[in-house]
Design a protein that fits this description.
The protein has 17 helices and twelve strands. With about 525 residues, it is α/β, with parallel strands linked by helices.
Length: about 525
């Protein structure tokens, strides 16, 4: 049979090249006016793959003769440039863990890599244990930097078990970016995963034993239902394991005082992180202004290098932390837009505005205390919530009121609890109230003062304030055209507290509808 000719019908057992692949003809038949052949792939990456096709409709099918050696006579030696490229690619594939300066991960990632994103990877490889804090500014690609480190450590066989902890709203984003940009499949450990594991493997099955790469929410870290199996898998210490904590500043105590009580999140992260060999913390705001709080976060990251209560020296911090701002990188030539801070001043509030009255009453409340450090921490937290929104302040003040009542009952019955009961989202207020009990003066007077503030906050917590009005005016001026149609612009609002976010969403809906 002549190579390249189109026979009326290929024979069973012959080799055929069609659609860019080599096939062997397994069967043939005629279906009406169409000749159909069944083909089995002979390619290394698709052996056994079967297809059926209409042979006469294919473009340039080619019958292959296994005894034809003539194609060898048409080939020549490769040129030096092509041969050099092949040798260099071979060297990339033979990198060893001993060479810390030869990166492999950037060549195995589907990303547009920026040069500054290689610095965390270089620092990670210099560390005997990857205990690294990436504190880059928002938008610089901390997830990409973390993915490069993970991919590199996997290629070097330094890790085999990875757990990523992130806020619940970021779980799917982490999962998508890791699989799309780095080809790494991660399992989200949640209630559905737990039930599925029990349903398929038995009630006592450990959900952490099904796989080696997981993503969990921050709230799961403090839930024994989930973390019990993880500790069982890792304890007392597992070599080759890695813990990645996104938004790591949530694990730092809110106060810088030496007495500061660790939150439930802090305790959960400290407990879990100690079981891993490698730890990678990510945060755009790693320092909350309190040196002792920052030292606590670093102690969780690397307890051999840092200790809570001892000042952090720059020379000790430099090997384990990467911190770049967009302004810094822009000066080095990277194309980041300049950040323009244009404050919106709000003035002319009536004297009876709820936010002003509550601020005055909160100041009076703080003046009635003994002025101790524990009370100052408590009032600072209440003030932060009030600055955020009356809705956030009302919920926190309600928690504070409940804690005061419980302490008053304990004093009356001569039973004092030594450990405060922590309440979700307001656990620092609950704990601070417990420890500041002796600095608040008369508890009955404190409860009465709090009740007066609650009356005002309850009436205003679901109402818009002057800031909402200013936002609506800004939206009307910058995001609507003359016919009040939406322009092609986007507005992003940031807030620290979930109560404020929910309140703001509802108020903006009311103002825009």
């Amino acid at each position: 049979m002549i190579k390249g000719s189109r026979p009326s019908f290929p024979q069973i057992g012959s080799f055929l090249k069609v659609r860019g692949k080599s096939w062997i003809v397994e069967g043939s038949q005629r279906r009406g006016p169409v000749d159909v052949v069944t083909l089995i792939s002979c390619e290394d990456d698709s052996q056994g793959e079967a297809i059926e096709l209409a042979y006469s409709a294919e473009l340039q099918p080619e019958i292959l003769d296994p005894n034809d050696w003539s194609p060898l006579l048409t080939r020549t030696f490769e040129g030096p440039q092509r041969l050099g490229a092949y040798l260099r690619s071979t060297e990339w594939r033979t990198a060893t863990a001993a060479d810390r300066k030869l990166f492999q991960a950037p060549f195995r990632a589907g990303i547009r890599l920026e040069s500054y994103q290689l610095l965390p990877l270089a620092k990670a490889l210099e560390l005997p244990r990857v205990n690294l804090l990436i504190g880059d500014d928002v938008g610089l690609g901390k997830t990409v930097e973390a993915g490069l480190i993970v991919r590199e450590l996997l290629l070097r066989r330094r890790v085999d078990t990875i757990v990523v902890a992130a806020p619940a709203s970021m779980l799917l984003q982490w999962q998508d970016e890791l699989v799309q940009k780095f080809g790494l499949d991660f399992t989200i450990v949640d209630r559905e995963h737990l039930l599925e594991t029990r349903r398929t493997r038995g009630f006592s099955a450990n959900p952490w034993s099904v796989g080696s790469r997981f993503i969990v929410s921050h709230s799961v870290l403090s839930d024994e239902t989930y973390t019990g199996g993880l500790r069982e898998l890792l304890a007392p210490f597992r070599a080759g394991s890695m813990f990645i904590l996104d938004e790591a500043h949530h694990a730092a105590p809110s106060s810088g005082a030496a007495w500061a009580v660790e939150s439930q999140m802090t305790k959960a992260v400290r407990d879990i992180a100690s079981l891993f060999e490698h730890r990678l913390f990510l945060s755009a705001t790693p320092h909350n202004g309190h040196s002792n709080s920052f030292a606590t976060l670093l102690e969780i990251l690397d307890p051999q290098r840092f200790t809570r209560g001892i000042a952090v020296e720059a020379k000790e911090l430099e090997p384990v932390m990467v911190r770049r701002l967009k302004e810094d990188l822009r000066r080095l030539g990277h194309a980041f837009p300049a950040r323009i801070v244009d404050p919106i001043a709000i003035s002319g509030l009536p004297p009876d505005a709820a936010e002003l009255r509550l601020a005055i009453m909160l100041d009076e409340y703080s003046q009635s205390s003994t002025g101790g450090s524990k009370a100052r921490f408590l009032f600072a937290n209440l003030q932060q919530r009030l600055f955020s929104s009356i809705a956030a302040f009302h919920r926190t003040l309600t928690t504070h009121r409940r804690s005061l009542a419980r302490k008053s009952e304990e004093l009356a019955s001569d039973t004092i609890e030594t450990t405060p009961e922590l309440i979700e989202d307001n656990e620092d207020i609950e704990a601070a109230t417990h420890h500041a009990r002796g600095e608040l003066g008369d508890l009955n007077a404190a409860i009465a003062h709090v009740d007066r503030m609650l009356v005002i906050s309850a009436a205003a917590c679901d109402e818009p304030d002057a800031r909402v009005a200013a936002m609506l005016d800004w939206i009307e001026e910058h995001m609507l055209d003359e016919s009040y149609a939406w322009q092609d612009r986007r507005l992003i609002l940031f807030t620290e507290w979930e109560d404020t976010r929910r309140w703001l969403v509802e108020r903006l809906k009311e103002g825009l509808l």
